[in-house]
Amino acid sequence: MGIFTFGDLLAHYPFRYEDRTKFYFIREVDENLPSIQVKGRLGNFSMTGTGPRKRLVASFQDDTGTLELVWFQGIRWVTTRLKPGSDYVLFGKPARFGSKFSVAHPELEPVGENQTKGAFLQPVYSVTERLRNSFVDSKFISKLEREILRQATGKIPENLPDSILQKFKLISKQEALQQIHFPSTADQLHQAQRRLKFEELFFVQLELLRLKVVRQDQQKGMPFTNASLLTTFYEKHLPFQLTEAQKKVIREIYADMRSGKQMNRLLQGDVGSGKTIVGFISMLIAIGGGAQAALMAPTEILAQQHYRGLKVFADAMQVPIAILTGSTKKSERKIIHDGLLNGSLKILAGTHALLEEEVRFNKLGLAVIDEQHRFGVAQRSKLWKKNTEVFPHVLVMTATPIPRTLAMTLYGDLDVSVISELPKGRKPIITRHQTDTHRLQVNAFIRKEVGAGRQVYIVYPLIDESEKLDLKDLMDGYESITRAFPDLAISILHGKMDSEAKDFEMARFKKGETSIMVATTVIEVGVDVPNATVMIIENAERFGLSQLHQLRGRVGRGGEQSYCILMTKDRLGQDSKTRIATMVRTNNGFEIAETDLQLRGPGDLMGTQQSGALDLRIANLGTDGEILQAARDAAKVLLESDPEISAGVHAMVRHHLSAQGKNKTNWSRIS
Ligand code: ADP
Ligand code: MG
Description:
By secondary structure, the chain is an alpha/beta fold. Helix content is about 40%, strand content about 20%. Magnesium ion (MG) binds next to helix 11.
């Protein structure tokens, strides 16, 4: 289990505790209780059943009722050790059989012996199946922990400085280890957990913040101080008033790009918050400084759309721009390659075709990466290796709001900007939940909106683009829609189509030539058709929260009231219910991301699986946000006063860092 030393074993914390403080009466027993503790009298043993169903049973009684006890194994041992007619304290998991409750393989201890141990929470440790078969079970580990703690009392070094212990009211390491394994009260256990979570997060944050300091000190960036292009754009070509949030973010980016240090900034903004123009303005900062800019998007459709969006501004500013994707023709490629090399081509948008070897820039000053979760970390780093001398500034844009706790851990060494408001005049999207039985009403609603000149998306889940079944769902849906609306022009879009056909359909819809777009999730990211006001998501229970939110963000992009209708079957599981209810309740991407984190745990969130940043022993990013914030603050304060961690009062921190250095995650990989 990766346990080699006493220290490792002490850090093998219980994953739950059994409550031995509460005693139940038998009449209170209920099959939903995870475990029960009951005082009562053991009845006579008898054998029943045959073959594999052969078992030992006995009754167990208190003044309020009777339980049945069952043993399938170890029968001899049970019958020789337990005395019918004596009083025992029983502990186990109750199950219901008809009107009776039974407990299989209960723990039974004579009442007298139990009383001393009765008043605490019993630790439960995880063990492997193999260890369990060799009798190294949870109880055994508990015994080891007790023995080690006895021997190590007074010898467990503190690894947090006094100042931090006092400021955050943390108990000592020694005390925390004692209490985490053998809590004397629920409150003490809570204190121990808080202390150990804090410690864990503190050291993670310390590493991340140190990396950030190192990067800022060592990684030179091109200093861009010429704002003339920016001013021209603001004065002559700005298509709308920027929101305060957009202005603030642009100021942050400009401050980075002129500083002489490399920018590594994550730009978070909910769908529709206007990240594209922020990206363009950042490009102008680089171009004004004599450099080039690149924008990389995860799909061909998106790259095209970015290109078209940027081109309007770029043309107005007379800045040469091109697009490079997998389908760019050879002759065009040559022109692009030459323009990049000689520096005449200023902006290149595209897909990961940008990462190809032949794509060389004269001077790449800024790499904007859209929708980062679609790109592997390795792919991203390729972009900035395209400048050998000085790395380009990097702006990663994401429309997937990342809960603060995750951002702090995953991107702890990046600077984060948030566009926290939507452009004015947007009406919040109204979200409804409908079941399949109400399809006629939904169709009537579609008819009404289309009649008013609007357009409608109908999206089907396509978890894996190779899944034939999903494609069939989509095709069936498309057919029933064409039957329901024989008079309307309907587009279809899915991943199996080639990019020419996709672009053709997308363009038709965008121009308003079709009223309904039946699609898979290929339209999930970034697609912008302001006249589309209805998003219908079929089999919505099959989507994750963040994906539902992304899809909903495809509407509500114009001035008209927009709607999102979540279609599901009638009966839903608990998690699906929560997801749907969350969507109906709020439009706030961050709130949705928080719920998602709580539902799924950090390990499943997009883009975090491979990071290793989440191999936490005791802290939980879904629920320990406050402790994380405190730990991060503490790490910051320490580094500000003692960047090298060389002060005498921080010796224990330095020591702990070098001790854990041997098997720690390579944090730099994450950025
Ligand atoms: P996202 O952040 O999802 O990429 P976009 O950049 O695509 O959002 O912007 C969404 C829409 O809002 C676009 O049509 C864009 O032109 C428009 N927009 C962006 N900023 C503003 C603003 N400050 N005022 C009005 N409309 C804006
Ligand atoms: Mg976008």
